[in-house]
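User: Predict the complex.
Assistant: Input components as received:
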Amino acid sequence: MFRFLTAGESHGQCLTALVEGIPAGLKINLDEINRQMARRQKGYGRGGRMSIETDKVDILSGVRFGETMGDPITLRVVNKDWENWTDRMSVMGTPTWTKVTAARPGHADYVGIKKYNREDIRDILERSSARETAARVAAGAVARQFLEACGIKIVSHVINIGGVKANTDNIDYANLQPNDSDLNCNDAQAEDKMREAIRDAGQAGDTLGGTFEVVVQNMPIGVGSHIQWDKRLDMQLAGAMMSIQAIKGVEIGDGFDYANHPGSQLHDEMFYNEDKTVYRKTNHAGGIEGGMSNGEPIIVRACMKPIPTLMTPLHSIDIESKQEVLACKERSDVCAVQAASVVGEAMVALAITKAMIDKFGSDCMVDVLQNLQAYNERIKG
Amino acid sequence: MFRFLTAGESHGQCLTALVEGIPAGLKINLDEINRQMARRQKGYGRGGRMSIETDKVDILSGVRFGETMGDPITLRVVNKDWENWTDRMSVMGTPTWTKVTAARPGHADYVGIKKYNREDIRDILERSSARETAARVAAGAVARQFLEACGIKIVSHVINIGGVKANTDNIDYANLQPNDSDLNCNDAQAEDKMREAIRDAGQAGDTLGGTFEVVVQNMPIGVGSHIQWDKRLDMQLAGAMMSIQAIKGVEIGDGFDYANHPGSQLHDEMFYNEDKTVYRKTNHAGGIEGGMSNGEPIIVRACMKPIPTLMTPLHSIDIESKQEVLACKERSDVCAVQAASVVGEAMVALAITKAMIDKFGSDCMVDVLQNLQAYNERIKG
Amino acid sequence: MFRFLTAGESHGQCLTALVEGIPAGLKINLDEINRQMARRQKGYGRGGRMSIETDKVDILSGVRFGETMGDPITLRVVNKDWENWTDRMSVMGTPTWTKVTAARPGHADYVGIKKYNREDIRDILERSSARETAARVAAGAVARQFLEACGIKIVSHVINIGGVKANTDNIDYANLQPNDSDLNCNDAQAEDKMREAIRDAGQAGDTLGGTFEVVVQNMPIGVGSHIQWDKRLDMQLAGAMMSIQAIKGVEIGDGFDYANHPGSQLHDEMFYNEDKTVYRKTNHAGGIEGGMSNGEPIIVRACMKPIPTLMTPLHSIDIESKQEVLACKERSDVCAVQAASVVGEAMVALAITKAMIDKFGSDCMVDVLQNLQAYNERIKG
Amino acid sequence: MFRFLTAGESHGQCLTALVEGIPAGLKINLDEINRQMARRQKGYGRGGRMSIETDKVDILSGVRFGETMGDPITLRVVNKDWENWTDRMSVMGTPTWTKVTAARPGHADYVGIKKYNREDIRDILERSSARETAARVAAGAVARQFLEACGIKIVSHVINIGGVKANTDNIDYANLQPNDSDLNCNDAQAEDKMREAIRDAGQAGDTLGGTFEVVVQNMPIGVGSHIQWDKRLDMQLAGAMMSIQAIKGVEIGDGFDYANHPGSQLHDEMFYNEDKTVYRKTNHAGGIEGGMSNGEPIIVRACMKPIPTLMTPLHSIDIESKQEVLACKERSDVCAVQAASVVGEAMVALAITKAMIDKFGSDCMVDVLQNLQAYNERIKG
């Protein structure tokens, strides 16, 4: 059984991710984990905080001399700015800072303050902040090292920012490569326009959302199951993706476009090649049929809403004075879709890892790989 | 804690749903449950089987003299046609019928047979069949009676079939009423064109998918939570919806359209009315901010792919002979989007029930309603 | 992932067990399931109802032509007496029978009626009744067929009834055989005295409890884990056993006797035999070290309290009149320890099955057995 | 929903506990948490390490200015000795220390090394070590502050060490007070003999186990449920207790002694007092009937085996040389039963907290206390 949890506030001492169920004997590359952390931070259109926090992961448990032991893995991401925030974020003591009372639309602020019976919105926004995704990326970076040991790769790319769309015709999903661009878009021309749109939005005090795709390559067939609603792999992927802050839509394969064409054009017919191996010429299904991976690349698409904290603030309310006010500015990113795509990779990696471990066990890599190979051998042809 | 599971094969003796965690003291209206079952079956474009199976629910446990006792509720939906299928679907004995060996694209057939090491595709398709959704509708019908006792209503409507789109401008989601039409579309003109499209597709041996919305009205604020990835209400709704057979996309509120507009146009600004109660003029967020219900109608949109079993069959494979064949026809619906919308209501009802019970407890209705009312009182204003 | 739930009231239409996660391709022997059902019913000292209900299991899903398909398995145990109880146990309609208002000590009656806000104690006792264990035995009978296919056997024996203790010196736990006696005791002399004690208690209008052991033979080593509190096999076994109605104590191996001797006498020293295979001369640990099976027979001991419904009724209360009364007699078994030992086997089988499937996967028997064999090969020597 | 996990190795950088579901608005007393940590360390008969590690808890998340926010709470317990262990316990790098290859009986060593495919037993013993219980005590200390806010108190006392038994007649469980003795025994005379037994065992190079009781006072009635096997409170308590390292037996109330007396002597008859409130004269059931708390003190008894690491080492095996050897000494406590009783309190606190939160919700203390009070009001009389 695989599970993970995160903890920590945005300006608290640190974020923590606890990852349990990674098999023993996995070599851990800490630089690679930190490379993923850096990817989350570098996007075009991010505000000032990104430069303060160059996130590094400390591994506090579960890894010894570079190898997992089967124990729960604790990952810590220190909030470097915390020392300047102790007046507002001390664990003990008495607050000396004024409370946040202006509830921002599009955030957890208003609902959270009611549900949890708080007086200072900071008690809510510190946890609802997208900073929490740093812990997810750390956890996901471990998960993807497990997946890579199983031969599975995860990449993503951004396909729409603020209405500027990348050309997605003729993408070879099985061989899609990660790129190093600051918007994670594979279409250079579109990416230039996206940058322009972000620049324009920033100058207008506005923000932009967008759409990205996460692709799982070399996925074994038969992961997930049709036998119960909560065992379906698409169900688990949709939940994992929608759990990311600001994500409002999830698609598998053709997604919503399935509504617009007749069935004869949308199903992935099956053929035998000369070796009597099954193949497809299309992948409308995005790699999942009947709640199970079918061997084609898994394609999960998600939409992120524009960051609701605008430099031109939104009409809002003050929970203390009960007056209408303009929402406070907690941060100032213009666009974080590239970052969301990195977080999306992490959540997909975590969901796929869970399903892989349910199927192939979790004691040690030798057993997992043996079980995987024997399975692949059995189902061949 | 609320949980539910279903069991049963499409042509087995019966489907079973086990629903646990419904509080004691809820009045159960069996006619209303059966009315939901009938809704799932009546849509325009459904094939022959729908008339054989007029589903009725038998309650086998958990309800006594019309009231829940707090016990697990067992719901049975008999497969009326089973008696004619005993040669193929006996629990014991020896099969006398020929195996199904042609694996249909778009179904669990091929992957399932590999994963579960079966020789007869019937061992897979009997469970992966959308007939299983009858058990979900039964479970959901109980859940929605619980929700209605809490003042929460769930309705749905179809907004796209095969590219024919309903006019969705100016919908008053808070007051959207259920309709009795055979396509569950509120736009009569569009619905006529949808029927036409279905008729045309049927004549061409083709099938159509579509899009529908499920709306949760009068939702208390603060259900779900921002504090952990798997406690977010949108996460749970996305998973529940994507778990439905043939669903390939899920959106909350504006969904993927968030990508196309700047943030200044997409967030739901907050105002105080004269009583110092918060209100909004828009609901882009679809009733969920920060993973929690915000008091606005919850709007979940889903896309169903066209049924992959076409009268003009798809190119496929025979798992025994290893020859390419045309896929067998297991059934012959042209369009089941209306049915999917009913199933969507059920899954939303079940997900919301789980979240409500996590928040307000599950012993008995008196306590749940007391806790709900005290909470509403506390957060007022 | 393996899970199971039961549903159903003692005098309702039927009990249901839903068992999910049994791999595909397991041959199911229905006669053997029913033999387990019969074992639960035959014990010396059981009252009148046992003869009414000769329980038979109907398999409603998950099995086709004698083999599992990987689907959820639905097991039904009809309550044969239900037809005579419709005045008291109808799902719908109006009750015509008088309510039960005398709350019996030692049962869920009093607490249940408060918690669930009921007026008729029957709403509680129908579910809290030990009749529910029939569904567990049915589920456990499926689980043990899975375990037997993996080479694992489960037996039990009664070692104490009402203070009459069996001689348990020199038991060869690895080869302990099931017996067919009506008290499930392997010590014939003690068993005679147990029967006598039961007879005496019955004549005095009294009841007797007792102690039994469940033994798991040929258990693979390394099932369960030390890495997290809720993954320990002893934790799972203790929970499963304590979940049985009337069970008040659970021990693994030497159990409470560990308190009375120094460590030098209580640990199972390890030796190599000529083949360099590890062996032990003792099994104080009862087959579990560090939360994992260690290859020795697992020994779980449990204590059942005497049935609290006595022919000489206990001092109790009437929840309606608020008067002190003598507790009503719902049934009249004198001793059910033999039945509890059968239920104990079932619960142990279910707990072990869960842990086995977490470790070796659950898709199909071919894969599970392959994974198990490869693991055994790897760890040899 | 309440959950908690621990992570960390015995000589790693730190232990971590992640506790999720504690309601917002609970005042946290850090000194009191640290007092619990100290209690775990001070027992008579503990070896040298206890003086090195005076455990202090750092709260890394979830608490702000002394109050919970509803967020996951991260608790860190630094391993002070870690700096001296980096040659053996570095996260990265190459080991320079010799491997541990002698597998000790009674520990996870041998099984763990096989299951997880390790070559250095340190990879297993670092996590299986009872040091992990420090993280549980930290988590439990938070849980008990929650319970105390609900009026619930948890105390324990040791009743048997190495066969020396305390006098447990006439204990007033409802008013049992914590004591500060170094063996946590309330019977001073017996405690002196226990000390003597520990001294003698230590001099003989031996170890001692024992038995303790954890008592939950002022427990609301109706927590837990009879409706499903895994919702029973006794099931959850038994699992929680048996999950503690070295615990081999768990009893509720009279426990195994129920086997030795007839039912007429063992059930807790009910009476009305003048106010028509129900009361009992006995508490054989240990506060739980039908899987639910019945308002009497909950009494959970557990047995700890003697520590298997003896100064006079046990016969064991070397996994590398395949020779029989004497087991290595990883530590040298003679008796840790007092510490186990503190851990037992923590695990009971965590299990009760989970069940309370399932019943009364977990958003904020104001709501939980309101729901609890309204419930108590409803069921009165």
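The two ends of chain B are 30 Å apart (CA to CA).
Let me know if you want any component modeled separately.
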